[in-house]
From TrEMBL:
InterPro entries, per database record: AAA+_ATPase (IPR003593), ABC1_TM_dom (IPR011527), ABC1_TM_sf (IPR036640), ABC_transporter-like_ATP-bd (IPR003439), ABC_transporter-like_CS (IPR017871), P-loop_NTPase (IPR027417), Type_1_exporter (IPR039421)
Keyword Heme among UniProt keywords: no
Name of the protein: ATP-binding cassette, subfamily B, MsbA
Membrane-topology descriptor: Multi-pass membrane protein
Domain of life, per lineage: Bacteria
One GO MF term attached to the UniProt entry: ABC-type oligopeptide transporter activity
Biological classification of the source: Bacteria, Pseudomonadati, Bacteroidota, Flavobacteriia, Flavobacteriales
ABC transporter domain mapped to chain residues: 378-611
Subcellular location: Cell membrane
UniProt GO cellular component terms: plasma membrane
Main subcellular location: membrane
Pfam name, any one: ABC_tran
Length: 615
């Protein structure tokens, strides 16, 4: 059994009753599919005046004799009806029996499919939910190595492929095999000799189909991978549309997209061709066998005779037999098609479980403590940290007392933003510790750690929603008055109040309807509303114009009073009032002190201030 099939079985458990009902109705469908053709025999017998005449009512003996009893009773009733009311009434009876069996066959087919639909869509929903939970919980580091578009393709396309293709397996193991089994049983009871030909057909057909479909799983996997790349190209192109247009790079992006869709086209055509071959191949092989049956069976009806001159096989039974033989073709075709679909489904399931089984390296310990307050200090002790091979921070230590503002400055790549990533546990330190009030942040629950912190990043990340919903992200029960107060602190209410719908205004995709400075002020308002004891500002004012920066700087200074703040700054004018300024260079502390102390040193910080004063 395929490993990915085993992994999907737990997802079926909540729908166990639906799976059982699907199996029951599939078995009933298979039974009545066979009976619908067997019921043609008495009808043909009545039509051709060959109905077996039974004048005495048969006696029921035991369960093992029920088939014979049912047949004898039907022919007894036909004989009685014919003698009392004429052949027309007998014909009406058998026609009603034929209609009833076909009606029940199709009713059970519908009910079986109905319960399968509940299973398919339920598992689709559960897989999507689990996968979204997983991709939200995975650490930031995972997405620095993966294409977001590929993750989206697995979330949307591959799970859908599992739904559409994989669940063919329920038909593959129950409905179609049972149809074939019941049909062959009926065929053997009519003529064992003729049925031997069918046993030749099935293994040959199976062998040919398995040969054709051998490479299907690997090709499906490659197609799904390519689909992920394609979505990545679209997602990146839309995200960077301004850059694409400003650099006249449309041709380059379109070429990349076209190369991907052409590769996908070739793979899709190859997969579809093999899929399309399954059904006609099995049907043609079936028709060849039926042609042989017609010849051989026709001889048994017309030429070969028993000792008493009767034909070896009655015409009515032979016609019903041919109907049964053709009845095998439909499930045989369905099995061959489903076996192909299952291969595609398994390839898609493999990509889905690849993400579901990724180990989340940043999780809560079993005995993690819930920290609800900040009392003393943040201590960063002897940290060595690397994203790849080279250390970004080297033996780095820093204390941030409660209520103080510590600013980190330095060139790009000096490790400033890495400190913010480690404090929030977006990444975990490899060596050394980060402690809050003497407790290692790895020993706290992630939720309580992040509740203590407010983060304003260089990139103002906003969602396609109203201003109100964007700001209350960290405090969902906030009132409109609290939201407006936070907007005022962030110097954002002046522009929000003149918008058509005020705080109920939708700001578009990634806040596209607002300017860079307006977006950043909303990000600051969001952090203000959360009101955490520790504030991390990662280049928070970098997107603001000079006038807005002054207003927001005053607002930030007000907000940072009696609050612990870590300010990562490029513009040194924004951090002159910090209690401590730490100058970083290549992951190490170069200088530290107040603004005046560092100027007096006449070192790196002094040079940076001089350079910026001439900008």
């Amino acid at each position: 059994m395929d490993e990915n099939f085993k992994k999907i079985i737990p997802y079926l458990k909540p729908y166990k009753s639906n799976v059982i009902l699907n199996i029951i109705f599939n078995i009933l469908y298979a039974l009545f599919s066979t009976l619908s053709f067997i019921s043609l025999i008495p009808m043909l017998d009545v039509l051709f005046k060959d109905a077996e005449k039974i004048v005495e009512e048969p006696v029921y003996t035991d369960i093992w004799d029920i088939t014979s009893y049912g047949k004898d009773y039907l022919y007894y009733y036909i004989t009685k009806l014919t003698e009392e009311n004429g052949a027309q009434y007998a014909l009406l009876l058998v026609v009603c029996i034929v209609i009833s069996t076909f009606l029940l066959k199709n009713l059970f087919n519908y009910l079986g499919l109905n319960y399968l639909t509940i299973v398919k869509n339920g598992v689709l929903k559960d897989l999507r939910k689990n996968m979204f939970d997983k991709i939200i919980q995975l650490p930031i580091s995972y997405y620095s190595e993966k294409r977001k578009g590929d993750v989206m393709a697995r979330m949307l396309g591959d799970i859908n492929e599992v739904k559409n293709s994989f669940f063919s397996i329920l038909e593959l193991v129950v409905k179609e095999p049972m149809t074939i089994l019941f049909t062959i049983g009926a065929m053997i009871s009519i003529s064992f000799k003729l049925t031997l030909f069918v046993f030749v057909f099935i293994p040959i057909s199976g062998f040919v189909i398995s040969k054709i479909g051998k490479s299907l799983k690997s090709k499906s996997g490659r197609a799904q991978q390519e689909n992920g790349y394609l979505i990545s190209v679209v997602e990146e192109s839309l995200g960077g549309l301004k850059v694409v247009k400003s650099y006249n790079a449309e041709k380059n992006i379109i070429s990349k997209f076209n190369d991907s869709i052409n590769r996908l086209l070739k793979l899709s055509i190859s997969i579809e061709r093999k899929n399309n071959l399954a059904s006609p191949m099995s049907e043609f092989m079936g028709i060849v066998v039926i042609a042989i049956l017609l010849w051989y069976g026709g001889n048994m009806v017309l030429v070969d005779k028993l000792a008493n001159g009767e034909p070896i096989l009655e015409g009515s039974k032979f016609l019903a037999y041919m109907g049964l033989a053709y009845n095998i073709l439909t499930p045989a075709k369905a099995i061959s098609k489903a076996s192909y679909q299952v291969k595609s489904g398994l390839a898609a399931a493999e990509r889905v479980f690849e993400i579901l089984e990724v180990e989340n390296t940043i999780t809560n310990k079993t005995d993690a403590v819930v920290k609800t307050s900040f009392e003393d200090k943040i201590a960063i002790e002897n940290i060595n940290f690397r994203y790849a091979e080279e250390n970004v921070l080297k033996n780095f230590s820093l204390e941030i007392p409660k209520g103080k503002t510590v600013a980190l400055v330095g060139q790009s790549g000096s490790g400033k933003s890495t400190i913010a990533n480690l404090l929030t546990r977006f990444y975990d330190v490899q060596e050394g510790t980060v402690k809050i009030d003497g407790i290692d942040i790895k020993d706290m629950t992630l939720e309580s750690l992040r509740d203590l912190m407010g983060l304003v990043t260089q990139d103002s990340i906003l969602f396609n929603d109203t201003i109100k919903n964007n700001i209350r992200l960290g405090k969902e029960d906030a009132t409109d008055e609290e939201i407006i107060a936070a907007l005022k602190v962030a110097n954002a209410y002046e522009f929000v109040k003149v918008l058509p719908n005020g705080i109920e205004t939708n700001i578009g995709d990634a806040g596209g309807k607002l300017s860079g400075g307006q977006k950043q002020r909303l990000s600051i308002a969001r952090a203000v509303l959360k009101n955490p004891p520790i504030m991390i500002l990662d280049e928070a004012t970098s997107a603001l114009d000079t006038e807005s920066e002054k207003f927001v700087q005053v607002a930030l200074e007000n907000m940072m009073q009696n609050r612990t703040s870590i300010v990562i700054a490029h513009r040194l004018s924004t951090i002159q009032k910090a209690d401590k300024i730490v100058v970083m260079h290549k992951g190490e502390i170069f200088e530290q002190g107040t603004h005046d102390e560092l100027l007096a040193l006449n070192g790196t910080y002094s040079k940076l201030v001089m350079m910026q004063s001439f900008e």
